Please model this.
Amino acid sequence: MGNCITRDSDPPKDDADANADAKEREILAIDTAFSLPSPLPEWPSGGGFATGTIDFGGLVVAEVTNFTKVWATYNGGPDDGGATFFEPIGLPEGFYLLGYYAQPNNRPLYGRVLVGKDTSNPANPTLKWPVDYALVWSSKSQDVKEDTPGYIWAPIPKDGYQAVGLVVTSTPEKPPLEKVRCVRSDFTTLCEPDDWVWGKTGGVDSDEFNIFESRPVRKGKQASAVSAGTFLAKSGGGTTVETPLLVCLKYALKNNTYMPNLQQLEALIKTYAPKVYIHPKEEYLPSSVDWFFQNGALLYKKGDESNPVPIDPSGSNLPKVAPMMENIG
Model:
């Protein structure tokens, strides 16, 4: 996986001081795109693993890691280094934007966002245009170091649909309606602020305007929610409307064919499993679970700690944990 970044999509404002500041601006960490030290290997074929897309049950998603810079700030956020806002580009054919990406300037560009493709019944599509945009925040009259003003917009969805991300521009004109798509509500679930991206103060409870990464409220291996990689905005100084409720994506239908098969698992283990080198004189060696159970592992019961019992080699007398209910909200 790697990232690609192109130049700003809009020219700087016609201001001598701003242009001078831009020319003198030091190179930021985000000006360098993150890349792995070596290319990903070719995985064995079969099933849906590593195909680049996942079908949520009528909504197919793909990951995009190429961006064009739309707007940047040079103060505020982590290390007071500012943040940069990007439009994803290079979408696969038939896929649409769900929202823009934002990242602090103090790290190399490493982002990814999900884009969507509607494969449902046309009578009840999973993706629709917004009906309008609401201006959430503008940097005009704000204490922000920037090359151009920035404007953050919230898509207003049709009934039965939800906005998954926000849109950023460097001009006060509303974005085109076809710029992004909103997602049918049964493919969405609540999300919450995650890591701080930008603002004057980073607390979730701050009265200032802040940008955060997003993550699902319901998490865990049994959860069906997925972050789209877009960002959240929290109301504060400079906001023009109450910041909208954004959502994460979720599976409407789980499909295990996207999990690796045995051959692919073996390839993953061979590529990424750690290698442990043991000193020739080491007395304590790794063991299998079976060996551990057969060679002294004991099971203790609360309130009766003085009477432990051996663990059955099959593990049949270990406490049973009830399976978690699948999160579908």
Summary: Residues 9-20, 323-329 have pLDDT under 50 and may be disordered.
